[in-house]
Amino acid sequence: MQISELSDRSGLTVQTIKFYIRQGLLPAGSAVSATRSEYGPAHLERLRLISALREVGDLPVAAIREIVAAVDGGSGPHDLVGAAQRALGPDAAAPADPDWRAARRDVDALVRELGWRAAADAPARDLLAAAFVSLRRLGFPVTLAELRPYVRAAADVAEHEIARVDGAAPRTATVQSLVATVVYEQVLTALHRLAQEDAAARRFAP
Amino acid sequence: MQISELSDRSGLTVQTIKFYIRQGLLPAGSAVSATRSEYGPAHLERLRLISALREVGDLPVAAIREIVAAVDGGSGPHDLVGAAQRALGPDAAAPADPDWRAARRDVDALVRELGWRAAADAPARDLLAAAFVSLRRLGFPVTLAELRPYVRAAADVAEHEIARVDGAAPRTATVQSLVATVVYEQVLTALHRLAQEDAAARRFAP
Hints:
Chain A is mainly alpha-helical. Chain A has helices at about 5-10, 15-20, 40-55, 60-70, 75-90, 100-115, 125-135, 145-165, 170-205, and strands at about 30, 35-40. In chain A, helix 4 packs antiparallel against helix 5, helix 5 (about 75-90) packs across helix 9 (about 170-205) and helix 6 (about 100-115) packs across helix 7.
């Protein structure tokens, strides 16, 4: 198909598509003349993935370039979950204060205690440490007992997500893993907020 | 205490504290002379809450001003959950395209089917609709059966959060509700990512 059809079918303007090609997110089409290139279904699929990561994950172009490079480099589902998570951040340097360092050690101890296999430098560890620091400053306890409902909810959902990844179809599997990481995270966040509102309404405004 | 002690105990610079006072996030101290004001424990508590919302929720000053106004206006836990959620966004206008409108209707139908009491204009509905649009574009089904694990995880966690809010201590209860909404959302997100990495490692890199 020509770029105009790719634009119609992806819902992205021709300028945006050309921008993605220049940025290395999308392979160029095959040139059929000096002024015309031909695009295939893989281009459309790639554009849908980029759009989802941009819109839902709110990921910058540089982060998407990393993810796309991992996909093109033949990374399996496992590596891709890691790549997507690094792209999701946080990517700021960890603060140097002692409260934060103590919280980060507690996170590592928690992950060990749960027996979870997660990279030692997974950004999610920093994210959790930052939440621990805030909870402690506000006087909330941070113990495994207190966190148990979150651990259980997270583990149940993750188990379901990874179980349904089709390991026999490598290309599909990688995309499924990415989507689970980015888009379903938003599903969980949105449902969590709605459920909180419902629980608060039932308890405080019966 | 003087502002220098408030600075030491909150870990915020004097400039930041003065900025929060100017922005209406923190009440001014009581003037004890032309150049000195006195601050109390309520100031320290408020600064800790502001810091948590800023650091963890990544909320802009305007959003925190709204939340703080709701706290000071005597809003109960139920209203505060709503106020915090509106502050968390999304606050962008909903896109006008038909896919999005269809997804938004599906979200409303889902919330009705679950029997959840959530405001008709809750931003979390828009957040969920955006995720639905992405999932559909990527060829993922969006059905109640498919979403069930997320619904269950969200409901379990929210139930736990609201159950532990101390309804007998109004001030504490409001802060607890806010923290549950903002900080524990980050706890859930971080644990979800770590659990995904673990599940992917067990399945694809045993």
